[in-house]
Amino acid sequence: MAAVVWVCLAIALFCVAYPLYVMRPFRPQGPRELQAALAVLQYREPITIICTMAVIVAAFASGRRVFAAGTVLLACLLAWLARVNVYEQIMFHSAGRPQFVDAKEAQIDSNDKLIVVKVNGNARAYPIRMMGYHHVVNDDIGGTAIVATY
Amino acid sequence: MEGRRLTFHLAGINNQNFLMRDDETGTYWQQITGRAISGPLAGRELKLIFSDEMSFKLWREEEPGGRVLAAVSEYASKYEAKDWDVRMQRTPTVIQFREQGMNPRDLLLGIRSDHASRGYLYDRVIEAKLVKDRVGAEPVLLVVGPDGQSVRAFHDRISGYEDAPDFYRLNSHEDDGAVMMDAPSGSRWNFQGCAISGKATGICLERVAMLKDYWFDWRNYNPGTTVWGKRLQ
Known about the structure:
A: two-stranded antiparallel ribbon
C-alpha cells in the first residue's frame, strides 16, 4: 500500500513540476519537450484527482494514521497546484474585464507607445507599458471579439 | 474561431514568446503566430487584425474619439517603467541566430508577403524616413510618421495608376499633415496612406501587415528571412 501511495505522489509531483521545469523563463524550449509539457498540462487535472483518490484509499488502508494524514495532505496540495496557472496567477495577472477611457482623459505620456487597432469604426489603444505586464487582454470592439497580445 | 468566442489566458512560454490557452477548448496557442500548437484546435490559426505601434500623441491626433485601455489600479505599480525598451535591450535571449550580421536584440519591422519574409532594421528605417523595397515580388513602402517613431507599411502602388508611384518624403512638419508625395500624380499623402491633395485625392494605399520584433524571435519563426539595412561588417 505504501508503494501505491509513493507512486501516486510521484506521478502527481511530475504533473506539477515537469511543465514548470520545461517552461522556465530564460531557458530554451525544444519542440518535443514543449509538446510533452503541454500534454501533461492538458491531462494533469484529472490525473492528480485520480492520484489523490488512490492515495486516500491506499494511505488509510495502510493503517498508519500519521502517514495517511501526511500523504493525503501532500496529494491534495499537489492536486491544487495542478490547477494553478503560475504565469497568470503568480508571475503576471490578467487585466480581467478591460476598462477604457477616452483618449482626451488618458493619463499617458505623449511619447508612450501604444498598440492601436480600428475595428468596426472603433479605435482602441493598448499602452505597451500595460501590455508588457498583462500580456493578454480579451476585448470586444463593436461586437467583434478580439484578443490583444504583447 | 468558427463562430465560437474564445477567452484567452497567459499560459506558458516557448523560447521567450508566450503561449496562451483558451478556456473553452483548453487549446494552447503561440502568441507570435496566432497558431494553435497543442490541444483540440491544434493547427488552427487566429485571424490577425491590423494594428499599429504608435506614439500616444500621434494616435490621439488621428483618433480623437478613440478609447485607451485603463490601468488596473492593483497592478499599476507593476507596469513597465518608461525605459522598458532600454532595459529589454540588455535582457539575455535563450536563442541567438547570430547570422547575417545580426544581434539577437536587434529591433526590426517584419513583413511577410508573397511567400517571402523580410525584416527592416528599425533604426535604419527611422533614419531613412521612407523605404521603398520588395518583399518577394511585392513592392512595399515603409513610411515614418511625423512623430519620428511610428512606422506604417503599404503596398507601393496607387489604385488606378499603372506607373510605379515613386514616392518621396516631405519634411516632418508640413501644415497639412502630409508626409510624402508621389511623382506620377503629384499628390500629397498623409501617414494614413491617403492622398489629401492632388490628382489622387481620396485614394488610400493598401496597408501591409508589419510586426515590430526582435531579430531572434522574428528569425525563429521566419527561417528564410532576409534583412534590410543590416550593418556592414
